[in-house]
Amino acid sequence: MSAEGTGRQSSTHCPYCALQCSTVLSGERGAVAVRPSADFPVNRGGLCQKGWTAPAVLSAPDRLLTPLVRGADGELAPAGWDEALDLVAGRLREIRARHGADAVAVFGGGGLTNEKVYTLGKFARVALGTSQIDYNGRFCMSSAAAASTAAFGLDRGLPFPVTDLDEADVILLAGANPAETMPPLMRHLQGADLVVVDPRRTRTAERAALHLQPAPGTDLALALGLLHLAVTEGLVDQEYVDARTVGFDAVRERCLAWWPERAEEVTGVPAADLRAAVRMLGGARRAHILTGRGAEQHSKGSDTVAAFINLALALGLPGRAGSGFGTLTGQGNGQGGREMGQKADQLPGCRLLTDPADRAHVAAVWGVDAGTLPGPGRSAYELLDALGGAEGPRALLVFGANPVVPAPRAAHVTQRLEALDLPVVADFVPSETAALADVVLPVAQWAEEEGTVTSLEGRVLRRRAHLTPPPGVRTDLQVLHALAVRLGQSPGRFPVRPPEVFEELRRASAGGRADYSGISYARLDAGEALHWPCPAGSGGDAGHPGTPRLFLDRFAHPDGRARFAPVDHRPPAQEPDGTFPLYGTTGRVLAQYQSGAQTRRVPELVAAAPEAVVEIHPDTARRFGLADGRLAEIGSAHGTARARVRLTRTVRADTVFVPFHFPGAARANLFTGHALDPRSRMPEFKVSAVHVTPAGER
Ligand code: SF4
C-alpha cells in the first residue's frame, strides 16, 4: 500500500548504488521529499547528491505512461496494454516456433529488486524455455564474483558489515573511488590510513596516505609485486596460511619473479612506494583490502582480483575479526541481482545450472521437470553480439537495463539490436535502448512498488512503495505475469505480489550458496538486520540471526580452507602504439549513475555534470593540439566518441579518462573493445588504445 495522500512517511532505500542508503520519503507525487535516516548504520544521516535528488525521476516530464508500439510508418505510437502484450506474446510464439526457444533472449539489470530478478530468471527458463538470459551486472561485478567464489567458496561483496571498516588501521583500495561513486562510505574510511591504487588521482586518492598510480592494465603486476614484498619482508602470516588456506607454495614461487624493480618497470609505481604500502598493510593491527571496477573491468579482471585476494590471504586478513577482503559492489541490487537467477549460468540462491542437485531443487520449487530447464546461456556481451545473427536470438526482452550506452563496442551493439525481429523494452523513461524497441512497456519504479534488495554487505533490505504507480503504468511483475499467461503458463505460477514472490524465492534459495530462506518481510519490517546466509529452521523461535561476518571459523569450501590462485600478469588486449598512442579508460562521476537514463533527467545532476568530458593532462593536450573546453574525438580501433576537453593533472600523461554515462556520440563505449575475461566474461572497459584529436579534424 502506498502512503500517497495520507501524510505518512515511507522508510525505504535509495534507488541507485549498492550502498543502499536508508531514506525517508514524504509528500505527494510532484512534491516528494527525501531525507536520510539517521539511524541506519551505513549512511548515518548522509546521502550523496544523487540520493538527495532521486525523487525527481518519479516525475520526469517524459515518463512513459502508456505502451508504445512501432507502426508501419516506423514510429512508436501509443497502444493499449492488451494490444501491446498480445503483440509481444504472438511474435514470441512465432519466433520460437520458427527458430527454437533460444531465439528469444532476456536481458536484465542489477537495479531490479530480488523479486523481479527471481521472476525474470524463472520467466526465461520456464515460460520461454530459453537459455539466453544474462544481465548488465556482467559488466560490473562478474570478475569479483568469479575470483571470490574460487577463493572463498562464496561471493558476497563485503563478507563483513560496512561498519567494520570504521575500526581499520589501514585500507587498501584497488580501483575504487568511493569518494565519487558512494560518498557516504568515506565516513567509514576516515579512521584508517588509505592506500589507493588508481591510475587517476581521484577524490579518494587525494585523501590517501599513499597513492599508487599504475599504468592502466597493470594492477595485477602491482599486486604480484606487493605479494613479493610481503614474502621477502617477512610479513606473511604463516600460521594463518598453514591453518586456513591451501595453495600458497605455488603462488609464493610465482610472485618471487616479481621483484620490486620489475613491478616498478611494468606498473610505473616506484618500488619504494610498493614497499611502503606492504609495510603499512603488514604492520597494521586491522587491515582491509577492497577492490572496485578499476581492478575488475579487464580481460584479466578475475585474475587481478585473485591476486589481491592472494595478498590478503598471505597477510592473514580474510575471516579475521576486524580485518578482511571485500569488493565494492556497484549497482543498487548488484549483490541480489547476481544471486537470484538472471545470470546466464545460475539459478536462484547462486545455484548452478550445471549442477543436477541444484537444478532438481529449483525445478521442484517451480513445479517443472528438471530436464526441461535449459542449460547455461551466453554471457551479456556475447548475447548482445549474437542478436539478429544466423545463430543468435531473434527477439530480446530488456528489463531494467539500457545496454546501448554501457555495453562495450556500443556502435556494434546498437547495430545488433537494430537487426532483431522483435526488440521489447520495459522501462519507466524512454531510454536510448527503448528508442530502438518495437514495443515499449511502461513500468513502475523504485518508490512505487514493494520489494527487497541486497546491499554490498549482503544485508537484505526492504524497498517500500510511497506512491501508487501513475495510471497506465504496470509493475515488471505484472508484465511478466501477463506475458507468461499469454504464453500458456497457469496464472498462479507467476505471482504479481512481491511478498508472494519472496516466499517462493526463499524456498528456491534454501540450502543454496546465497540462502535467504530464514528471511521474511515480517522480520525485515520489524527492523531486523539480516545478512545472508540466513537459513530457515535454525536459530530457535527468533529464527536464524543472519550472518553479518562470514568466514570467521571456516571458508565456504568443503574443507573450510580458502584457495590461493596462481595467477600471473599479462598485457591488456590493446596497448598504445603509433596509431593509438594513449590509454583510454572509462568510469563514473559523482553526479551521474550507470547509463544516465535516470540521472540525466534530474536538473541538479545535469547542472553538475551536463556532458561527457575527456580528462587529459595539460602536457598531453599540448602534444595533440587540444584546448581546454573544446570538443575532441577519442578514437580506437573499435570506434570514436566525442567529448569536451578538460585539462587536469589528475590523470597520467599517457592516459585519458572519459565517463560512460552519456548517450549518442558521447558514448565512451564507442571506443571500448570486446576482449573478455575468460572466466568472468567481463569486457575490458578500463583499457583501450586511443588517439585524441580536435573534433572534426580527423
Ligand atoms: Fe544513493 Fe549510493 Fe548516493 Fe547512497 S551513496 S545516496 S545509495 S547513490
Automatic annotation (TrEMBL):
Residues 7-60 form the 4Fe-4S Mo/W bis-MGD-type domain. SMART domains: Molybdop_Fe4S4 (SM00926). One of its GO terms (cellular component) is membrane. The keyword 4Fe-4S applies. SUPFAM superfamilies: ADC-like, Formate dehydrogenase/DMSO reductase, domains 1-3. Pfam families: Molybdop_Fe4S4, Molybdopterin, Molydop_binding. Keywords: 4Fe-4S, Iron, Iron-sulfur, Metal-binding. GO terms for biological process: respiratory electron transport chain. One of its GO terms (molecular function) is 4 iron, 4 sulfur cluster binding. It comes from the Bacteria. This is Molybdopterin oxidoreductase family protein.
